[in-house]
Known about the structure:
Elements: E1 2-6, H1 12-18, H2 20-28, E2 37-42, E3 45-54, E4 59-61, E5 64-66, E6 68-75, H3 82-103, E7 112-118, H4 122-130, E8 134-145, E9 162-163, H5 169-183, H6 189-194, E10 201-208, E11 211-220, E12 225-233, H7 242-256, E13 261-267, H8 271-279, E14 283-293
Parallel strand pairs: 6-7, 12-13
Antiparallel strand pairs: 1-2, 2-3, 3-6, 4-5, 7-14, 8-13, 8-14, 9-10, 10-11, 11-12
Amino acid sequence: MIRIRKLTAKDLPKVRQMNPDFFLTLTEHKDVLLDCVHTAYAGSRFLGACFLYAGPSFLKIFERELPVYHLHMMIASVSGTEEEADALSRLTDALMKDTQRIRKNFPRKKIVLRTWVRESAVYARDFFLYKGFRPVREMKEFAFDLTADLPAPVFPEGLQPETLDIMEQEQLKAYEKSSNEAFLVANSLSDVLFQCRDGNGKIYVLREEGRVLSGILAYQINDDACAAENIFTVPDHQKEGLAGSLLMHVLHEMKKKGHKTVVLSVFEEDAAAIRFYQDKGFYARDSRLELWYDDGNVTDIPLY
Length: 304
C-alpha cells in the first residue's frame, strides 16, 4: 500500500541517493518551499518525492502578472509499473491539493503550476497530460566537454571580459537594460540573481562606455558540472562574434574551476541559437517539455 506523507530530515539521504539533482534543487529552494513537500513509501521502501516552490518572481505575460509555482517530481523509475504509477498519481494529487490551497491567496489572479519532464520520461509525460497539464514548449539541452582542448577567445580591440559586481545597482541596471533589449521582453532580474546567491554564480559581460554589449550568467550545478544561461548580445552588435568570444572565455573560466561539463538549454524553435552552440562544440544531450496546469484559464505562452 502506498503511503504519502510530508518529507522529513530522515528522508533526505534517501532522496540524495535516488536522485542527486533533485536533492540539490530541493536544498537550493528550502527557503521558498511553502510546506509543499511530499514523499511516497510502499511499506518501508522509499518510492519517490515531490515538492512545490514559488518562483523568485511573478511571470509577466502580455503585461499580466501570474504567480508561478514550480513542481519537481522524482519517482523510482518512469517505466509505469502499477506501484510506480500509483505513487506518481498520489504525489501529484497531494500537490494539486496544495495548489488549491495556494489559489486562495490569489483570489483575483490566475496562477500557473509549472513543471518540466525529460524526453526520456515518456510515461511521466503521458501521465501529466492525462492529469490535465498542457504542453507549452520544448527545450533542447546541450552540453560541452571541458576536458577537451579549448581555443583561446579573441576579442575585438578595446573590449575585454569583465565580471559584474552584483552588489552595484548601476551595473545591474545596465545589465538588465541590455538583456531586455536583446530578448525583446522584460526578463526578471531576480531570476538571474537567484543563481548568483552565496557566490554560486557570476555574470560575465563585455562593456563599452558602461553599456553592456554581451552577457552570460554561469553557475555551478555540482562539483563536475556548471550551467550557462541568459546568453545575449544587444541587437546593434550582433553578428560581431561577441557572444561567441565571451562564451569561450566563460568555458575557460569554468575549466579552471575544475568543472568537466557545461550545460545550457535552448528553445526548440530557436534554430539559429542551436546552430550557434553546435558550431561552438556543444552537443545535444536531452530535451525537456515544459508543462502547465492552470485549469485552462491561462492561454498565453510566456515570452521570456
